[in-house]
Amino acid sequence: MKKSKLAIAVVNIIFWVSVPALTLYEPELVKAATVKGYVKTRKNKRTPLYHLSGKKSNFYASPKYTYSYTLKKRIGQKRMQAYKIGSNSHWLLARDAKVIKSNSENLINVQAEMRLPAGYTKAELLEAYEGRPSKEFIDASIKGMEINNFSRIKNAESKADDKNQVDLSNPTPEQIDDLTTFSLRLINQARSDLELDPWQDSIGARKLARDIALEYTANSKTIKDGHYVPGIRRACELNGLNLDDNYVEDMAGFYNLNKVMTMTELKKSIYFGLKQMIFGFAGSGEPGRKDRSNYQEWEHAGDLFNTQGSSHDGDHNFYGFSLSRTGDICSMHFISVPAYIVNNKEYNLGFKP
């Protein structure tokens, strides 16, 4: 079993924010320079996406979302006209697309995406996880912080998100369900770029996540204190897991003077927290993303991508998400139970995914 999960990078962010702000970062409300326009699917059903080779990918465009595109060209041997969706390598065929025209970016809803740039590989990640990040891998991580821009733009995923007010101390089950699905989608998009099996949404892991958040709240603990291991162990025991340390929690957090924020604001905080963990970013906000000295820690990424130099590399985890709030600090708990723990009678004394 690997070492317990660390929160060094995100904890430092809490200390580095000199003035309490709405979120960890200071959003740069700018449009990405590469965006050429926006498209939706023509039909009210999932529409297949393609690779540059012209072959179908394993992903689909949803009729619920408007997607930014960065390039329009002919792809594959059949020379099919297609739009390159956002900052990833998937293409929506022109025959399946409807171009959306608008004079204001603020009027357009977009789906958040999390993609890995060229150069971000499992082999390079393992070197970084073991404390030896290459120049090329740091370059890739810097690019990853740049191209994944949902945390920097004004756009929401939906108008409903802009109106949905979340009580950070008492989010509704429906809100937690939305945030769990949102964060898991981002994790699995990135995992797919490394050809890893997706993490699985799990009723058991969701309950574990809730119980861990309750431990933080009951004991006035936050991300500023690091992982609250005694509470994590109690929650694990309550849920049938025999674990002597923290093997289930990754954590990010932010300051918020108000106990309520919109779903859009909260999703952007989750998005930024995941970016930090994936790309080893230890800066206090988006403006520092081009500073190489801010790229310091890939313990979280090793966990999110099951790449830690163990016999269980390449496995998947069972996932749940929760929030806790103490004072002006909101902690976001990304809870995942590795498949090998679930399948091991020594560690699993009754946990059911």
Summarize the structure.
With 353 residues, this protein is α+β, with helices and mostly antiparallel strands. The protein has helices at 8-16, 122-129, 135-147, 159-163, 173-193, 203-218, 229-238, 263-279, 299-304, 339-342; strands at residues 37-41, 47-50, 56-61, 67-75, 80-85, 91-93, 97-100, 165-167, 200-201, 249-255, 260-262, 317-326, 329-338.
Please, could you describe this protein's structure?
The chain has 353 residues and is α+β, with helices and mostly antiparallel strands. It folds into two domains: 8-27 and 114-147 and 151-342, no CATH class; 37-107. Helices cover 31% and strands 20% of the residues. The chain is built from ten helices and 13 strands. It has helices spanning 8-16, 122-129, 135-147, 159-163, 173-193, 203-218, 229-238, 263-279, 299-304, 339-342; strands spanning 37-41, 47-50, 56-61, 67-75, 80-85, 91-93, 97-100, 165-167, 200-201, 249-255, 260-262, 317-326, 329-338. It has a five-stranded antiparallel sheet with strand order 6-5-4-1-7, with no helix packed on it. The protein starts with 7 loop residues before the first helix and ends in an 11-residue tail after the last helix. Mean pLDDT is 86; it is low at 6-34.
